[in-house]
Amino acid sequence: MVKAIGIVLFPGTEELDAIGPWEVLAFWTRQFPGDGYAVTTLSREGGSVECAKGLVVQAANSYADAPELDVLLYPGGQGTRPQLDDEQQLDWVRAQRERVPLMTSVCTGSLVYAAAGLLHGRPATTHWASLDVLSDLDPSIDLRRDARFVDDGDVITAAGVSAGIDMALHLVRRLAGADRAREVRRYIQYDPEPPV
Which residues belong to any copy of the DJ-1/PfpI domain (predicted)? Predict the structure, then answer.
């Protein structure tokens, strides 16, 4: 049976938070279906979602019709801010924690996890500009300010934006091995050498 990885989309999702991991995970799951994973997208209502910088993305599923997930990836962006007080959304996140074996986040997606109580007493990270917000949401969090991502077993949090690619490659390594992760990294030609 194929295991499902779901990437959450919502109005104001930071584009690269979702699309960077999608590129990694979609290449992996489509090129190597024998590894037994597939990746999909979901949003509260399904349908199109306008991201933070205007990119419109079509969510394949609504929360109600999404497949049973083995991994949930929660991106960040300004769209996470209203969710910190949205009890319906936080209850949904808590319900996912009850049934999804591996919860992951990118950037300020970890703020939503913190608001839902998922990071209490755990190590975690987020975008550098939101580290203090994460700490304010739950002072018990062991803040990892300099980490690209933090793997705490059944919860993985990543720093901002492009760190989601690093986390997604780590996820491939965890689920399918280091050799597979290297193949994926080579194909997407991810070997950062910033020009500045």
Answer: 5-173
Mind listing the pLDDT tens digit for each residue in 7-45?
A: 999 999 999 999 999 999 999 999 999 999 999 999 999
Amino acid identity for residue 49 in this structure: V
Q: How is residue 53 written in tokens?
A: 């910088």
Q: Which helix (H) or strand (E) holds 40?
A: strand 37-43
Model confidence at 133: pLDDT above 90: yes
Q: Is the pLDDT of residue 194 over 90?
A: no
Q: What is the DSSP string of 136-191?
A: HH-TTSEE-TT-SEEE-SSEEEE-STTHHHHHHHHHHHHHH-HHHHHHHHHHTT--
Helix (H, G, I), strand (E, B) or coil at 129: helix
Query: The pTM is what?
Result: 0.97
d(CA 149, CA 107): 10
Domains: count for the chain: 1
Question: Residue 27: which of 157, 161, 172 has the closest Cα?
Answer: 172
Distance CA 2, CA 36 (A): 5
Grade residue 193 by pLDDT with cuts at 50, 70 and 90: confident
Report the catalytic residues.
107
Distance CA(39)–CA(17), nearest Å, equals 15
Determine, yes or no, domain membership for 192: no
Segments forming the whole domain that contains residue 77:
12-32+73-187
| CATH number of the domain where residue 77 is located | 3.40.50.880
